[in-house]
């Protein structure tokens, strides 16, 4: 057992537009926190792993080719591997992110 201290908490790096911090990595999954300030640009690319986002603080919209949806604290979002997606942020957004398998483990390189 392991408690993931700080996972999902709003903790952006000073001067950074967005912040990604990984709190756990195993071969089968990884867990981290992604923070985007209000009005910030979410410039992520599609991932090679499935992912689940849990909004812990803040508000905005998730935009995918299939549509858009408003998100806020408690929202849980599944994004399959390879799907384009981005967040449009209206209030500082902190997301707990779970990747399966671990983030980047399927990346071609």
TrEMBL record:
Coiled-coil positions: none
Domain Cupin type-2: 34-99
Alphabetical list of InterPro entries matching this protein: Cupin_2 (IPR013096), RmlC-like_jellyroll (IPR014710), RmlC_Cupin_sf (IPR011051)
Top-level taxon: Bacteria
Signal sequence bounds: none
Protein name in the entry: Cupin domain
